[in-house]
Amino acid sequence: MGEDGASIPDEEWERFLREAEAGAQGAPEEPSARARMVARRLREEPGRPEGWRTHQPARRRRGKGWYAVGLLVAVGLLVVALDPGRAVGWFGGGGGESAPLAAESQRPDQPPATEAAARLPTLEQPFRGSPAARWGDGTAGIGLPAARATGWMSEEQVAQALDRTRDFLAASSLDPGVLRGERPRKAIALINPHQQDVQDYLATAFRAPSRENDPRLLFSRFEKSKVRLVGNVVKTRGRITYREGKRGAVEVTTDVTYVYPVVRAAGKSDEVARTIARREVVMSWDDPAKVVIEPGTFSLVSYKVDTTNGGCDAFTGYFTPEFNAERAATGSGDGPEVDPYDRSKSMDSRMREAGEAGCGTATRS
Prior knowledge:
seven-stranded mixed beta sheet
């Protein structure tokens, strides 16, 4: 096919066949099926993704001949032969942002790599320039272990408990209505109503939020009059684990990092900010024969959150992300530097490092 979609002229094709059959010096060899496929893909490919702070010259108008295209294809095939990894990256594979990571099955031993030059997020690519670009969408980014009989539960019951645990994470941290500030009724319905201290916390947190009764410990909420989410995707990375707990209960631990891209609700701002929340929730699926609990609910053992750009000391019950203007006015945090994408440290270690030093300074967003 020519560059404008037209077929190669019959005269050219016949000349090629005659020269090839005669063995003329310099006669081109017929390309293999794979080479033809790669050549066609290279012709059809609009080019590599545009880099940050790069200049793209104005495109020159196409000529009428197809020889220049053939030369470019030959160069492309040479690149494929000498550096196939680079060519794979052009087509959306390889180790670029388009290659999603496998689900997390254990704590990593180091933070994700930092890009040489940060690329700012946009409305079309709100996760650009961050490790979250390769994370899973919603619950797809949360690793779920295989079920096995544990404590008082059979394998089937454990599988059901794990599914309901993931349902709680979705209802508390991913539900669109909850993210817009609505009360997380579905999530609350999964919590043991007979656990009085937790019920007191829930009753107070939404009425009079404070440091001690902060709904953000369990739920992700934004004030819709101030910010709105960009698109319909929240990126996640984390895992669910379980073991036998007290009185034969199945104790489930969830450790998940959520990345929320937002813009100002007012006006037509296209500045994208990201709020990053790593939340650890430990729950106990208790034996009703030993603990007062409603079927299908769990008891909370512990819950904590570590948030970047969510409003460190603003206890309004909502995440309150800052944009460039607010950051310039408030300055950097007075605490230690923190990489919000680093999941190599346990939450306990992360919280101990933060201590009472202040809000801290995120090394990337």
